[in-house]
């Protein structure tokens, strides 16, 4: 029932150890060694985009592996950089592009862009984190979401940041017992629902983030365990009896699961 919580606790209790184990995987170790040996040789955006092995490694490190094919878009992201609010990356709602352009800041650093810490050890560190999360997701999507939320939580300052990110939205909706159907409603209404229920400043506190993620994990496991029993009363309570109900009583849900988390 609580496999997501158990796995989350196992991985996060000593995150350094978990990441080291990922880094020591033969394929990760090999690809990272190649990256570090060659990224410094890249002197231009064209060099970068034309070396598929380096480029794809970097894209995965920033969670953009599903956009590797979009070289025209990434060229624009890299060419304009992040120096002003009017650059292409800064206009995109997805922060991953800003992070990528900042790490590979050809616009500001030119040929020296790949010498920065962000482009070298910073990127390899992120690659290990992304691999850890993806490997977790291969076994349990809820675990991937929990790890991702934990990593992103401290940077959340607005409900719209959550709503612009499908993974963050899924975690919040699940943790609060909201039906995913509310995503089709007015964006400002959704933002208000979040701020009415959650003090976003709490996400700066690792202890409170852990409790929030534990609640998400319990809700996730309960929903998954009962997904084949649509008439089960607990499932009805968790998923919502109708699309007209936007929120549920989280205390009731957690009581049903015999788990208590403070807010």
TrEMBL record:
It comes from the Bacteria. Pfam families: DUF1217 (PF06748). Gene3D superfamilies: AGR C 984p-like. This is DUF1217 domain-containing protein.
């Amino acid at each position: 029932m609580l496999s997501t919580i158990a796995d989350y606790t196992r991985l996060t209790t000593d995150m350094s150890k978990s990441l080291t184990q990922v880094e020591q995987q033969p394929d990760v170790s090999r690809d990272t060694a190649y990256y570090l040996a060659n990224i410094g040789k890249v002197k231009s955006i064209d060099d970068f985009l034309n070396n598929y092995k380096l480029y794809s490694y970097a894209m995965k490190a920033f969670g953009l592996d599903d956009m590797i094919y979009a070289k025209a878009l990434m060229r624009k992201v890299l060419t304009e950089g992040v120096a002003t609010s009017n650059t292409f990356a800064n206009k995109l709602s997805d922060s991953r592009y800003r992070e990528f352009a900042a790490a590979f800041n050809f616009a500001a650093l030119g040929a020296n862009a790949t010498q920065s810490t962000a482009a070298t050890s910073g990127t390899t560190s992120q690659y290990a984190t992304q691999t850890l999360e993806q490997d977790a997701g291969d076994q349990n999507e809820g675990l991937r979401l929990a790890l991702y939320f934990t990593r992103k939580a401290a940077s959340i300052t607005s409900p719209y940041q959550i709503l612009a990110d499908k993974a963050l939205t899924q975690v919040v909706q699940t943790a609060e017992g909201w039906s995913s159907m509310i995503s089709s409603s007015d964006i400002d209404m959704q933002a208000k629902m979040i701020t009415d229920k959650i003090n976003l400043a709490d996400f700066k506190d690792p202890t409170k983030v852990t409790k929030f993620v534990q609640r998400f994990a319990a809700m996730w496991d309960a929903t998954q365990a009962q997904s084949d029993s649509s008439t089960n009363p607990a499932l009805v309570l968790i998923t919502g009896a109708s699309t007209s109900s936007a929120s549920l009583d989280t205390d009731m849900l957690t009581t049903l699961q015999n788990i208590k988390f403070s807010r």
